[in-house]
Amino acid sequence: MSDLDPAPRDAADPLAAHRDRFVGASSPLVYLDGNSLGRPLAVTGVRLAGFVDHEWGGRLIRGWDEDWFDLPQRVGDDIARTCLGAAAGQTTIGDSTTVLLYKAMRAAVALRPGRDEIVVDRDNFPTDRYLAEGVARECGLTLRWIEVDTALGVSEELLAEAVGERTALVVLSHVAYRSAYLADGATLTRLTHDAGALVLWDLSHSVGSVPVELDGWDADLAVGCTYKYLNGGPGSPAFVYVAERLLAEIEQPLQGWIGAHDPFLMGPTYRPAEGIRRMLSGTPPVVGMQPVRDMLELLDRVGIAAVREKSVGLTGYALDLADDLLAPLGVGVATPRDPALRGGHVTLVHERMREVTTELWRRDVIPDYRDPGGLRLGLSPLSTSYAEVRAGLEQVRDVLGGLLG
């Protein structure tokens, strides 16, 4: 269809010039998995080389006094300002997403003594569910499950039915990892607070792609990764946010030296640091923070609103192409069509999508697969073109059509 030609879209895209900043973006490979691992920025190689030669190799242990000790909070503030709609002093870079989610869950339920339920939906990311199960077991709590449509997510009505006077903590994903359903952060936070509970937001599939307003929502805690839309690389460290009003009383369970009031005192007992640094435990991942800094600088220049506009355009285009090229082959859509309810990826469903994904990877077309039968397209706005989306979905049509005979 002529109205699905990608060329006019790419020509009119105000962010198109940024694509060349990413390593490999000009190659023939079609990369549609930016919500699992973002492409590296070309400047990151220069930054890392400079860090090895000058900061690590040149300054050595002096780097801690000169820069590194406060780096987790500085990078955390940059994430907060650029992506989270949060004031300074509430966000820090720390451990992996899993470890920070665990810390946040344990700390949150401790702030609500006498309440014995954690609310979580059955389609939340596996780590979130597994951790909630573990924390409930450790603390003698009960899980209250929200049953959700896997093509959607947690709605106002579903949460209202689940929370009550027994609820200590609600664990929610801002963007559902399968369907890309975009939760209403402000409304769900308000409902949680009306029940007297705290809410922990997992922002892993939204940060850097979808605007977040943690302070505006009156959110309590949040955790997110940096290797998806923040392009920090495999295993890059996660961040944790704790609302300022909770910082004086929150106590996280992994009491390490770097989160102590005076780390170099090496005192006989643990006394937590003031502010967000108390959420840290061990030595911060200084090397792992370097690539994230490059992406944050780019996002700061471009603006998250422009990124979101491009994201809506890419995902809408992917849905239109799916209707045109793939619906005749029996492919369905497991992602909200309303852009106000949709994050930065699209999931297309067919019983043979696992086989399709295997063949696409062999052809250097890289989407993602999620059961049941979901082909997930992670469209990173700054590194993905409309032509790339078209090329990828044409390959999906060809491979699936071949399998169906």
UniProtKB/TrEMBL annotation:
It catalyses: L-kynurenine + H2O = anthranilate + L-alanine + H(+); 3-hydroxy-L-kynurenine + H2O = 3-hydroxyanthranilate + L-alanine + H(+). Its EC number is 3.7.1.3. Pathway: Cofactor biosynthesis; NAD(+) biosynthesis; quinolinate from L-kynurenine: step 2/3; Amino-acid degradation; L-kynurenine degradation; L-alanine and anthranilate from L-kynurenine: step 1/1. The keyword Iron does not apply. Its cofactor is pyridoxal 5'-phosphate. One of its GO terms (molecular function) is transaminase activity. The keyword Hydrolase applies. Keywords: Aminotransferase, Hydrolase, Pyridine nucleotide biosynthesis, Pyridoxal phosphate, Transferase. InterPro entries: Kynureninase, PyrdxlP-dep_Trfase, PyrdxlP-dep_Trfase_major, PyrdxlP-dep_Trfase_small. Belongs to the kynureninase family. Homodimer. Catalyzes the cleavage of L-kynurenine (L-Kyn) and L-3-hydroxykynurenine (L-3OHKyn) into anthranilic acid (AA) and 3-hydroxyanthranilic acid (3-OHAA), respectively. This is Kynureninase. It comes from Nocardioides kribbensis.
